[in-house]
Predict the 3D structure of the following.
Amino acid sequence: MKEYHSGTSKTSSMDLVNGSIAKTLMLFSFPFMLSTLLQTAYSTTDTIIVGQFLQQEGLSAVSTGSQIMQMMYSVCIGFSNAGQVLIAQAKGAGQHEKLERIIGTLFLLEIFLSILVGGICVVFSGGMLHIMNIPAEAYIQAKYYIVICGIGVLFTGLYNMFSAVLRGMGDSRHPLLFVVIATVLNIMLDIFFVAVLHWNVAGTALATVLGQFVSVVFSFVFLLKHADAYGIRFGRNSMHVDLGTARQLTIIGFPFAVQMTAVQVSFLFVGRMINALGVTVSAAFGVMQKIRSIPSFITQGFGLGAASMIGQNLGARKMDRVSSVVKYCILFTAVIDIVIGGLYLLAPMFWFRIFTQDADVLNYAALIMLVLAIEVPANCFMPACNGLVSAQGFVQLSFVVAMLDAFLGRIFFCWLLGSFFHLQALGYFLGYVLGTYITSMIVLFYYASGWWRKRAALV
C-alpha cells in the first residue's frame, strides 16, 4: 500500500475521531463559520451594492438571476458533496489508495459537469427567465447576470471540488483562506464595476466570476504543493476516471444534485408567483432571501464541521461519538438561531436598510422579519441532522426529504396561502419558510429513532 504523509502541520488537518467532542467541533467548525460568513457576504455583496446604487429593477434582476444560478450550481455541488462523503470515510478508515482514486475521479467529473452546466446557462438563459415570469423591467439585466455567471460555472465547480477534498481530509482552515481571497476581491470589484464604471448588474456578475477564478488558482497551487499529504496526483497516471469510484460518486452525487435542484426549483416556482405581484414585491423577496442566509454562516459552519466529524467517525466505527457530535451541534445551532431570531423581531428596519433604501421595499420589512422568526425553531435541528444523513451517504432519505420540502412544502404552502387563500405577499413569504419544518422534523426523527446506527459505512 502506498504511504502518505500525515501532513498535520502542513495541511492543518485535525484529529476528528479522538478527544473532546465539544471542543473539537467548535475548533474545527470555526473556520467553516468564517468561511460560510464570507460566502454569505460573497453572495449578498451583489444585492447590497445593487440595492444601494441601482433601482428596484436591479434588485429584482440579481434576485431572480441568483436563484436560477443556485439551481444550476446544484449539480456541481451535489457531486462535490458526494466526494466529501467518500473522502471523509476513506480517511477515517485509513484507505489511502482509495483516496487517490476518489480525488482523481471527482476532479475530472467536476470539469465535465461544470462545462455542461455552464453551456446550458448561456444557451437557455432567456427561456429560464421567461419561465420565471420576471418583471419586464428586470429581464435584460437578469439575462446578462446569468450568461456571465454561466461562463464562470467551471470556476465555481472546481472551487467546490477543492473545498470538498480539504473538508473531507479534516482541513477546515484552508477553505476559509480561499473564500477570504474570493470575497475580498468580489467586494472590491463589485464596487469598482457598479459604482465607478456603472456596469450595472453585469458588473456584479463579472465580479463574482473573477473572484471565483482567483480563488480556484490559489486552491490549485496549494494542492499541487501539498499533493502527497492529500493523496492527489495531477499527472496522467492518476488523473483518470476510475469506473468503480465514478459509480459510487454518481450513486451518491446524482440524488444529492437532484434534491438540491428540486429545492432550488421550488424557490423558482415561488419566485414566479412572487414576481407576478410586481417588481417591488420581487425586490423585497430578494432582500428576504439574503437576510435569511445571514444566520446560516454560523449554523451551516457547525453543520459542515459536524458532517466531516461524523464521516470520519463512521469510517472509524465510533457510533456513540457520532451521536454525541449530533447532540452538540443541535445545542450550538439552537442557541445561535434563537438569539438571531430575537434580533429579527427587535430591529426589522435595520436589517432591511443594509440592502436597500427604497421606501416601497422597506414597507415589507416588519412583515418579512416576523416570517423569518417563525422559521427559527425548524432551523435549530437542520444542520446537525442533515449532516448525519449526508455523512452517511443516505441519498434515498435525502432525496425523499428534498422532494417533500420542495413540492409538498414550499410550492404547495405558497400556493395554498398566497393564491388559494388570497393572502398574496404574506402567504407566499410564509409558505416559503414553512417548508423547512417538513425537512427538519423528518431528519430529526431519523436521528432520534436510532435507525441511522443500522446503516453500514460506504468504505
